[in-house]
Amino acid sequence: MGNNDETKAKNEVTQLEDTAPAAEATPDHAEEKLTFRDFWDHRRVLGFCFIIYLLPINFGYEVSMVGKLFAVTPFAKQFGYEVDGTWVVKATDQQLVNAASTIGLFTSAFATGIISDFIGRKRTIIAACLICISGVITQYFSNSILMIFGGKLLSTLGFGLGHSLGPVFVAELAPTKMRGVCLVLINTTIVLGQWLNSLVVYSCQKYEGDMAWRIPIITQVIPPSLLLLALTFLPESPTWLLINGRNEEAAKAYRRFNGANFDVDAAIDVATVAITKEQEARKEQESSSWLECFKGTNRRRTLIIVMVYISQQFIGVNFVSGYLTYYFRLAGVNDPLALGQTANAIQLIGNIVSWPLVDRLGRRPMIVGGYTIMTALLLVIGGISTIGTPPALSATVAFMVLWGFLYQATLGAVAYAIGGETASVRLRQKTYSINIMVATAFSCLVTQVMPYLLNTDQANLGGKISFVFFGLSVPVLIYLYFCLPELKGRNYAEVQEMFENKVPARKFKTYKCDSALLEQSEKKDIDV
Question: Where is the Major facilitator superfamily (MFS) profile domain (predicted)?
C-alpha cells in the first residue's frame, strides 16, 4: 500500500514542478477540457499569476517601444538628423539602443536561476522592480543616445529577471489542470504590453516637444511599482520555502494562493516528493556535460527547441512587433502611430484566440499550419509592395496586420509549450540555456540589420523586406514539417520512449507507448 501511495504522489508531482503543462499527466487526464467552472474555482491562482506577470508587461512594452520611439518625430529630432524632409535616427545609434535590450535580456536569463534559488522568488522580484525603475528614470532624463543605452540596459535587466522568473514561480503554484493556461498567460501579458505602448505613444503624439517620447518612457514605471505594492500580500514560493526547511511558512503560502479550504498537508506531501525528485535530477545534471545536449537523442530534442525559437526571428517577428510603426511612418502612412496601436490590439486578440486552441488542435498543427500561412503571406506582402500605389500600400498594411494576428495565435503562443515539453528532464536547464543563447544571438542579428534594410538613407526596402524573411522562412518551414513532433498530452516517460525509439515526427501523435500502458495499469491498482 505504501508503494502505491508513493506512486500516486509521483504521478501528481507535476503540480509543483517548474516544467511545461502536461509534464507528468496521464493520457486520460491530458484529454480533460477546461471549463468556466475551473477558471472560477482557481480564480485566486489566476489573480496571483497576473500579479507575477506584471514585469513581463514591461518586456512587451520594451519590444514595441524601440521602433515606435524612432517613429516619434521629436525623438528623431533630438537624437537623429534630417534626410529629404524626414527625420531619421542614425542606423548605428539604433543598433546601440537595440544592443542594450539584447545584453540585458541575455544577462538576466542566466542570473535569474542563481539569484532566485539563493534569496528566494519574492526578493528577486523586489530587486528586479527596483532595477527596472532605476533604468526607466535614467532613460526619462536622457539627453544622449549613450544615456538611453545605459538606462535601457538597466531596465531590461530588471524586467528580464521578472520575465525569466515568472514561468518558474507560476509553475510552482499552479494546479496541474490550469498550468497550461497559467503559462500561456505570460505571452498574453507581453502582447498586452505591446498594445499599451502603442496606446501611450499614440496618445502622446499631440505633444510637440520632448514629452512626446519622455512620457511613453516614464510610464514604464507603472507595472513594477504596482508589483512592489502587490508584494505586500504576495506569498513566497511554497516550493522554495520547503526546500529551505520553512514548512510552516510554506503551509501559509499554500493557503494564501489557494484559499482556506485547500488541502495543505497533501500539497506538502506531493511537494516533498517533487523536491526529492528534482534534487536527484540536479545531481545527475551536475555530472552531465553541455556537449551531451548534442549527443544521441538529445541532439534531436535540442535542435527542435532551438529551431522553433529561431523560426520566430526568421519569419520576421522583430519587424512586425518592433519596427512596424517605424515602417508605417517611412512609407508615408497617414497617422502611423494610430495604425500601430490598432495592429497591436489585433495581435492581443490573436493571442487570446490561442488559449483554447493549444490543447484542442495540438502543437504541431498550430505551428506548422500557422507558419505555412504566414510564409505565404510574406510573399504576398512583398509582391504587393512592389506596385507602389496608394491602394497597394493599404493592402500591404492590411496583410501585415493580419500576419501579426496569425503569429500571436499560433507560433508566438505555442513556442512556450515546445520549449517546456521537448527537453529531457535531466538536461532541460542546459538545453533551455542553449536555446536562450541561440535565440538571443539571432534576435540581436536581426535587430542590428533591420535599420539598414528600412532606413530611407540605406536600403529603403519598405514592404519588400518581406522577401528577405520569406527566403529565410522557407527552409525553416520544411524543417518544421518533417521534424516537429506532436507532444500534446504526453508525459516525460512517453516523450523519452518516443525519442529513444527514433519515432518519426509525424507519427508521434498516434504512437502507442509501453510506458503509457504501464502507467494506466498502475493507476487502476491505485484507484482500487
Answer: 48-488
Residue found under cell 511554497: 238
- 48-89, pLDDT tens digit by residue? 888 888 888 988 888 777 767 777 778 888 887 777 777 777
| CATH 2.160.10.10 at 290-489, yes or no | no
Q: Give me the pLDDT at residue 327, please.
A: 67
d(CA 252, CA 194): 36
- Whether residue 25 is predicted with pLDDT greater than 50 in this model: the reply is no
The amino acid present at 1, given as its one-letter code, is M
Q: Say whether pLDDT at 400 is over 80.
A: yes
Domain locations along the chain: 42-234, 237-287, 290-489
The CATH homologous superfamily for domain 42-234 is MFS general substrate transporter like domains (1.20.1250.20)
Give every CB contact of residue 135 below 8 A, 6+ residues apart in sequence.
150, 151, 152, 153, 154, 155, 156, 157, 158
513 Ramachandran zone, left/alpha/beta (phi>0; psi -120 to 50): beta
For the range 289-294, what are the long-range contacts, defined as Cβ-Cβ under 8 Å and sequence gap of 24 or more?
290/430, 290/434, 292/427, 292/430, 293/427, 293/430, 293/431, 293/434
d(CA 267, CA 521): 24
